[in-house]
Amino acid sequence: MFGLHYKLERNTIGFALAVIVVAGIGGFVEIAPLFTVDETVEEAPNMRVYTPLELAGRNIYIREGCYACHSQMIRTLRDEVERYGPYSLAVESKYDHPMLWGSKRTGPDIARLGGKYSDQWHVAHLNNPRDVVPESIMPSYAYLGRAELKANDLGLHLKAMRAVGVPYTDEMIANATSDTYGQAMPDSTFSSGLSKRYGDKTTVRDFDGVAGQVTEMDALVAYLQILGKLTDAAYSPVAKAED
Amino acid sequence: MALGERDPHTGHMTTGHEWNGITELNTPVPRPVYFFLAATFTFAVIYWVLMPAWPLWSTYTKGLLGASDRNALTESLQQAAAAREVWTKRIESEDYATVQADPGLMQSVRDSGRTLFTDNCAVCHGGKATGGPGYPNLTGASWLWGGSPEMVAETLRVGINSGHPEARTSQMLAFGRDQMLSRADVENVTTYVQSLSKPAMSKNADTKSPAAGTKAFETNCISCHGENGKGNPELGAPDLTDHFWIYGGDRQSIYTSIFNGRQGFMPSWEDRLSPLERKILTLYVLDLGPGPK
Known about the structure:
The complex is a heterodimer of chains A (243) and B (293). Chain A is mainly α and 243 residues long. Helix content of chain A is 43%, strand content 0%. Chain A is built from twelve helices and no strands. In chain A, helix 3 (52-63) packs across helix 11 (216-224) and helix 5 (119-127) crosses helix 11. Chain A starts with a helix and ends with a helix. Chain B folds into three domains: 14-61, no CATH class; 72-166 and 266-288, Cytochrome c-like domain (Cytochrome Bc1 Complex, Chain D, domain 2, Orthogonal Bundle); 183-260, Cytochrome Bc1 Complex, Chain D, domain 2. Chain B contains eleven helices and four strands; from the N terminus they run ββαββαααααααααα. Chain B has helices spanning 31-50, 69-93, 96-100, 103-120, 122-125, 149-158, 183-197, 214-220, 222-225, 251-260, 275-288; strands at residues 14-19, 22-25, 55-56, 59-60. Chain B is elongated and about 120 Å long.
């Protein structure tokens, strides 16, 4: 019974290879099926992509390390669903590269934050969280409102996203910079093609309430207001559950 | 296989390795190890049969127990709803006055309403619902859009300037910035508005006479705020004669409101909260204040 083993353990390279093969079988059986099993990622045919402004906001969210305290993942637990809304589906993070599910909640989960509060509230809260939530321990991000958004390279960001599977069109990539300004400056000439390219539900607003310039605050608030709103796929299974 | 010879002391074989005359015993694996190995394998096989386990290309074995986190969640939500049904059914079916008159039901409203309020409303209106700059105080019976339960429930449902198709919409114009009033007029109206809630001011010799602002107030403000400044809940125009100020009642704040205008925002909760949850919240906030007299 141990004959092969006696031989193998006397051969360093052979034994190392055997360990890799055995561990590899475990990994293959656990990981590979995720790409073939239908139920891993749900269908969401009407899901829209992030606009360049929202993507810029997402980059700021990552840069500032927001994910260290805020998760974007509502788990299948009663208390989470009752507090935050329907549990998160894999498809909702389909265009998130990298995903920002997070693993720690110092602050609340924000997977379904979009539309819950007003833009003014978000700006006031990011400027000084204690102004609106006295017991908050979140740091102030007032400098985002003073930093002009770097928008001239967003076409490249869109291109990078397309390389990993986000369906941005050539037109979206070509117009990324003007779309960025257009979304944060309603009534400007830049806004014209935005809803044609990204859908009628795209919000065109002056997110930070300061007209005439597009700041990092605009981008971050635009991103926070789209959280959980790229698709409504999550609402169908839960609606069924509540019946 | 070059096994060594039997060790005279223990009776076990040696491995055949030898270092300067020292040989290595080839002691057999203890029995308990085999026992636990067999036990864990058995457990695994039973687990495969009972629980979701093996991938089958586009699907997987579901297991005999039919375990699923999502189904378990659905079930626990249903159980929770059923446990609450004793009182939620009555809140859903009975009208506001009946619920408000029932101390037992109102206790349930307070208990569940506090959690709902903290999760959804407190970040703007404050943990004690006393509001803050830009966010109305909900405890003062000073309601922009009417304080009857039906009106409060409607505001919760559609929101204010929220983008909801039936949303309540309202805007205070920027009388100064958009040059509808001169700076001097804005000053005068500010004094007049201040005097509405502070009758003593008109007798105070130090301040400019509020009367100077009367004319500009009558031409510009009464269409929304009413002749005596009492406001109009149909238009969401606040009462200027009470002591509740959304953006502050000091001179500078009032001046800014008149000069730059204001437009508040209350989200629509129709998609986020169920009709029952909105009814509980309506009853909860009305219970916080003195209520409609």
